[in-house]
Amino acid sequence: MRSGRETVLRQIPIFSQTLAQKLLISIVSSIVSVSALASAPDTSAWYRQATGYHIWIKSFADSNDEDQVGDIQGIIDRFDYLNDGDPDSGGDLGIDLILLSPFYLSERTSDDPMDNIHGYDVLDYYTVNPRFGDEKTLKSLLELAHQRGVKVLFDFVPGYTSIKHPWFIDSAAGGQKRNWYVWQDQPSNDWQAAWGGGQWHDVWKPHGDRYFYTYFQSAEIADLNLHNPYVRAEMEKVLKYWLDFGFDGARVDGAPYLIEDGPGLQADRAGTFKLLQDYRSIADSYSPAKVLLAETWRPREQVGNYFGDGSNQIHLGLDFNWAWAVTEVVDNIAPDAVADLKRYQRQNFPSGYQMATFLSNHDSYLPRPLTRYEGNANKAFIAAALQILGQGTPMIFYGNELGLKGKPKPDAELRALFNWQDVERQTAKPHSLLSGYRDLLQIRHQYQAITHGSELPVVTRQYGVSSFMRLYQGTGVVILINASSSEQQATLDLMPFFKSAESESLSEDWAHLSLLLGKVKIPAVIDSVTASKVEVARIPPNSVTVLYLGAEPQKLIDGYYPNVVAPTTLPNIQAPALTSLFLRGSMNDWGASLPMSRGDDGLWTIVTQLSHGRYEYKFEVSGQSSWGLNWGDNENDQRGEVDGSNIRLQLAESGCYQFWFDEVTRRYGFQLAEGCD
């Protein structure tokens, strides 16, 4: 029997966090290729030029506007927002790649819009969760997407299932699938979390007289034994099923932790890379080939291994390290963080690698941008510019373009409902965050230097302005970032544009310099003599400026965004009435011995006798060993949060205490009662 994986709180990548003096303006000039003569990347793979959008199905769009639970039909109904089929309309985002969250039949199928139906607790890989729709509707979505030139990826979950999956039930009973999961009679205390830290019982959960392994650290989700050839064959069957169905590729969930070889040997295993090679062989067997995107949530020293030799494992890796580095650039904590990361990747990753960049996602990694930047929409806009115009395949997490807010604990807050009225509000405001995203995306779609070109540094360090240039077939796009609160100026060295092989198609030794986005003073024409000292004056504070170099002058797309606004409101959630509720905590060994009673006003109460001391508890709906919808509290503000942290309680005296929970407002509390009757 194989041993297992590690288990600990995920490590956040650490970059330089102190500077002798903070620069007023971020410097990321070496965000790009070291050589001014760098050749253009391979442009034959569509995913390198794609603009992605990550949809959380439950939260994106509800087709009936009744239960406030998103569904597949809702995506179809709102598809024009993503891509309306008219590249010249300007009314859509121009998305050409969609990643769907898990849609499998899973244990959580609640009608409650506040329920965290994450879909990773799989019950049946071959059935669509009826809360989201059915195969017919899913097929209609794929057909619509393909008609408009949009590729669609599904979330492939090969590592674990719900403990209510028939496979697990059979395995726990010692049936034919007894070796389909990872079991031990008594795990050693050497085990940790898969990503380091923690304790053995974080990843080993009791079930009967044995323990099952769960890298997910959940008593409801068990890891599949991917050492078992029958399990590997079954998961390959799942992958083929949905690729045959019409998907253009898959996101491999939890890729670093698919195989565990013992305590401390729970990530980045050789067996995992062999699995990825097998999945790549399947993807490459299609014509055209399918694409593998992987969750590569690991230190940068490990990420390159997931690309194999650059052509035999994954195509795309989600760049968790980039997501963190961007925050340090925007906040001027480590101005070179992105540049250093990109340089490391170029020097250490195999040829052919491609990273998918994101500012936040559905996991407890980072807050959404507007939350991370404390409501500063200008900073959120700068971060978006680095993502959309920089190197990599941008994967926009739904709602970030509106400034949807969300904290990472609990991660359910990162998956809040998308309010479609906000789209209307921000569309009407020319300097809204959504309008800014549309401008950036228009530049990405209109100028192939962004999607097809190589990147070159632009020397601006003497003025501290962040700058990089993308080159393709005699054209160039220059991006300037001023993340300071004051107006700046810069002298740009654009001579690499004339020296680069990318500019060989120029018939003259001069080029037009046009302003695409922003409000600065620049010369209209530069030549190979003056290009080394191009003066850019009056760069506004907290701004993004985009310039164009080429044989023909270009029109301004938009001016300076002085104060980016992001008006957003969460929909008024109408939660359904609960049918049962239990007080579960350390006072009753987290069991179901304290059922609560519901009043006509939706207030649930229970009175119980407690001794003085410390307690932890939550409110939960099922009373079963496998927990259902539950509420804790992360902010300690007496408002229940779905899947929130344990509520802590310190009692100074013993006595009878009444606990209450309001199912409408999710407020809760306790008080000393007169008696226990």
From TrEMBL:
Gene3D superfamilies associated with the record: Glycosidases, Immunoglobulins, Oligo-1,6-glucosidase, Domain 2
One Pfam family here: Alpha-amylase
Glycosyl hydrolase family 13 catalytic domain ranges (all copies): 54-444
Keyword Signal set for record: yes
Keyword match Signal: yes
Alphabetized CDD domains for the sequence: E_set_AMPKbeta_like_N
GO biological process terms on file: oligosaccharide catabolic process
Alphabetized UniProt keyword annotations: Signal
SMART domains the record matches: Aamy
Taxonomy, superkingdom: Bacteria
Signal peptide location: 1-38
Molecular function terms, GO-annotated: alpha-amylase activity
InterPro entries in the record: GH (IPR017853), GH13_cat_dom (IPR006047), Ig-like_fold (IPR013783), Ig_E-set (IPR014756), O16G_dom_2 (IPR045857)
Alphabetized PANTHER family for the sequence: ALPHA-AMYLASE FAMILY MEMBER, NEUTRAL AND BASIC AMINO ACID TRANSPORT PROTEIN RBAT
Family: Belongs to the glycosyl hydrolase 13 family.
UniProt-recorded name of the protein: Glycosyl hydrolase family 13 catalytic domain-containing protein
